[in-house]
Amino acid sequence: MNSSSRRRDAQNRSGVSSETDIDRNDVYNIEGSPNQYQAPSLGPRSVWSILGQWWPEFFAFLAACGLLAAIFGVLEKNKDQRSNYWTISGLSLNSFVALLSAILRALVLLVVEEVISQQKWLWQLRRRPVGQLNSIDEASKSLMGSFLLPFRLRTWFSNMYIGCLIMILSLAIGPFSQQAVGTKTCEIWQNGVKAQVPYTTRGPEYFRFGAGLFDIEPGYAGRMASACMDPSTQNSTFLVEGCSTGNCTFIPSQQEDYALSTLGVCSKCMDTTKYLQKNRDNSSGGYDIVSIPNIINMTGSYQITGLESRISSLSYAQSDFDDLQRALFPASILNYTVVGTTSAGCSYANESSIITGCTPTAPLDFTWKAANRDPPMNVFSSGCTFYMCMRHHSVKVDRGVFQEQLVSSSPGFHMEPEGSLDHVYFWKDKCKVGDETIDMTKARTVSYKDGIIDVRLNDEDTVGRTFPNTTDCLESVSWPSWRGLQKSMQVLNSTCRYPSQATLGSVKGRREQIQCDDYYLSGLLANGLGSASTVSSTFQAVANAVTNRMRQTAVLSNFTGDAGSPTYEKSQESQTQGGFVQGGYVYGNVVEYGVCTEFHGEWLIFPLLLLVATALFLLHTVIRSVLRRHQEPLWKSSLLPALYASPESQLQAGYHSLQQLEEKADQDSVQLVKTGDYKWELIKDAEHSEQELAPMAAPVDMGQEYTSYKR
C-alpha cells in the first residue's frame, strides 16, 4: 500500500472524510511538475481581496520612496548653506540623514521579508525537504540566512535570491546616504554690509607759494620715499573700509575684468644699459668713468659713484621708443635716467665672501673697477617715465590682504589751444557715442587737431576713432595740480656714493657702505643686486604710492557719495586753495568664509536602484498572487499555515485564506507540553486528557532537575 493510501485509511479511521483531502502527490505544481492533475480551486477570491492583503507592503514601499525623496530634498535645500543652517532640536544634518536612511532600510527589509516569506510557501507546492522551508524562513529574517540560502537550496536560481541580495545590499543604504552629505569652504555674503575702496577723477590738492610755483602736501613725498626704500612692503590695505571679515569681493560691472577706475600716476621703464660707455678720465687720476654722454657720469675718484638717479630727457634712447612710449610722453610728469653698480652676474660663495669675477651685464662687453680696484662691478641703466594716466584695477581682499592689480591703463594727453595747453586730459573707462558704448580702458591719443582727437582704442587698433573735444568722455587735471605733483616727485633726483676707502670686495660690503644723499634712494640698488628690472619695479611702486595718496585725499576732502550705491558715486566738486578734488567709492561685498554643506547626489543612485529592485521583486510576487489566486495560497510570513497544514493536522478547505486562519487561531487554545511519549507538542485541551500527559508536563522543580542532571 502506498503512502497516499495509508494516509487515506488513517484519515477514514479518524473520521475525517477523504473527499476533502488533497493528495500531496496530486498538488498543482507551479514549478512545472509532470503531474497532470489540476489542483482544486481554492474558491472565489477577488482581485481586490488579494491586493488588500498586500497594502502594508505597498504602504511601506511608498514610505521608503518618500524617505529617499526627503533625503534628496533636504540635502538639495541645504546645498551651499552653512553647516549650522540646518537645525532640528540640535540634530545635525548628518544625523538626520542617518536616521532617515535607517528607517528607509527598515521599510525595504519589511517589504522583502514578506515577499520572501510568500515565496517559501510557493516553494513547498512541490515536494521538498521541510528543512528548506525553514531555511527560506531564516533567509526572510536574517542576513546570515539570506547569505546561506543559495547553498542550502542548492539550485542555481530562484526568485528568492533577488530578495536575499536586496537584504544584503541594504546594509549599504546608510553609508551611501551619508556619503551624499559633504562639506566645503564657502563664501557667505554679509547682507546689508558693504566694503568700500576710493577712487579719484582729479589731481592732488595743491597750494601756490609763488608766481607760477605750486606744490602739494608733504604726505606725497613721504609715500614716495617709503616706496622707493622698500617696494616689497608697499600695499594699499589702508584704502579699504568696512571689510570687517578680511574677505571682500568687488565684482566687475558688465562682465569686465576690472572693478575700479581711478586717475593716478603710472610709470614705464626701458632698459638703457646698452647706451652706457666706459672711458678713461686721465685728468682725475686715470680712473674709468661709466657714462651716458651728456646725461650721467659715474666716477671712481675721491668718492666712488654707486648710483645716479637724474631727471633727464630720454631722447638719447628715442630709437627704442615704441608707440606706447611715444603716446605717454605728452602726459609725462618727470623722466629719470638711473645708472648704478651691481653685483648681479658676479661670482661669489656667499654675500660675505670675496667676489672672484663678473660677467658683464648684457649687452655690454665690460665691467667697471671703481677707483681701478679689484674686484670688478657690473653696471646697469634704466630710463623711466612717470606720467599721469587713467588706471583700471581688479580689487579683492583675501584673508585680510588687500589685492589690487593694475589691469590696464590709458595715458593722459594735452589739448591746445584755447588756454588748455597745460591741462592734462584722460579718457573715462567707457565712452557712449549714440547707442554705442566704446571701451576706452586702453585708449591712447595719437593727435589733436582742429578740435578733433584721434585715438587708438588698443594696441591692435590701427585705424582708431575720432572724437570731438567737446565729448563728455573726458576727465582732466588742472595744470597747477600737475605742476605741484611734478615738483613733489623730484625727490628721486639724487646720488649714492661709496667712500674712497670703502671695502668693496663682497656683496655685503657694497650694500652696507653705500651712502646716499637721500637715504631712501638705496632701495634702487636692490641690496646690491640692482638691475633695470628692479628699477622698473621700484618706480612702479612709487607710482602706486602716489596714486593711493591721491585717492585717499580725494575722499577725505570732499566725498559725499551714497554708501549704499553698488557702483561709482561722484562727490560734489570743492575747491581748496585753487585745487579741485573729486572722488568717490567703489563698493564691494563683505564675504565670510565658513563650512557649507555639499550635496553629492550621485551617492543616492545606489539606494534608488535598490528601491527599483525592491519594487520589481514586490510587483512580480503581487502579480503572481493575483493571477494564480485560485491555485496558490497567500500566507506571507504567517506562522499559522505551518501549524494548521502540518502533516499531523488537517487544513480544511474552508480555511484557505489567511484571514480565516487568523479567525480560527483566535478560537483555538493550545499549550506546549510534553506528551506521554516525552515529545514536545502544541495540544488542544480538548484533544488530550490529563492522564495522557507525561508527568513532566507539570511545573518543573528546577532544583530537582539540576540534581537529577548531575547524577
Describe the SSE topology.
Layout: H1 3-13, H2 47-53, H3 55-77, H4 93-123, H5 130-139, H6 143-153, H7 159-169, H8 173-179, E1 181-200, E2 207-210, E3 213-215, H9 219-229, E4 248-249, E5 260-271, E6 277-281, E7 287-292, E8 296-298, E9 304-311, H10 323-328, E10 332-342, E11 346-347, E12 357-358, E13 378-398, E14 401-411, E15 424-427, E16 430-433, E17 436-439, E18 444-449, E19 452-456, E20 465-468, E21 474-477, H11 479-488, E22 494-498, H12 507-513, E23 515-516, H13 532-558, E24 574-576, E25 579-581, E26 583-599, H14 605-627, H15 640-644, H16 658-667, E27 670-674, E28 680-684, H17 702-710
Antiparallel strand pairs: 1-26, 2-3, 4-13, 4-26, 5-13, 6-7, 7-8, 9-10, 9-22, 10-13, 11-12, 13-14, 15-21, 16-17, 18-19, 19-20, 22-23, 24-25, 27-28
Helix pairs in contact: 3-4, 3-14, 4-5, 4-7, 4-8, 4-14, 5-6, 6-7, 7-14, 9-13
Describe this structure in words.
It holds the Pfam family DUF3176. Residues 1-20 are annotated as: Disordered. The chain crosses the membrane at residues 54-75, 95-116, 156-176, 603-627. Keywords: Membrane, Transmembrane, Transmembrane helix. Residues 1-11 have a biased composition (Basic and acidic residues). With 711 residues, this protein is of the alpha+beta class. Among the domains are: 1-38, no CATH class; 41-180 and 600-636; 271-385 and 491-540, no CATH class. The chain is 31% helix and 25% strand. Strands 1, 4, 5, 9, 10, 13, 14, 22, 23 and 26 form a ten-stranded antiparallel sheet that branches. A hairpin with a 5-residue loop joins strand 27 and strand 28. The longest helix has 31 residues, at 93-123. It is elongated. The two termini are 47 Å apart. Residues 1-40, 559-581, 688-700 and 702-711 have low confidence and may be disordered.
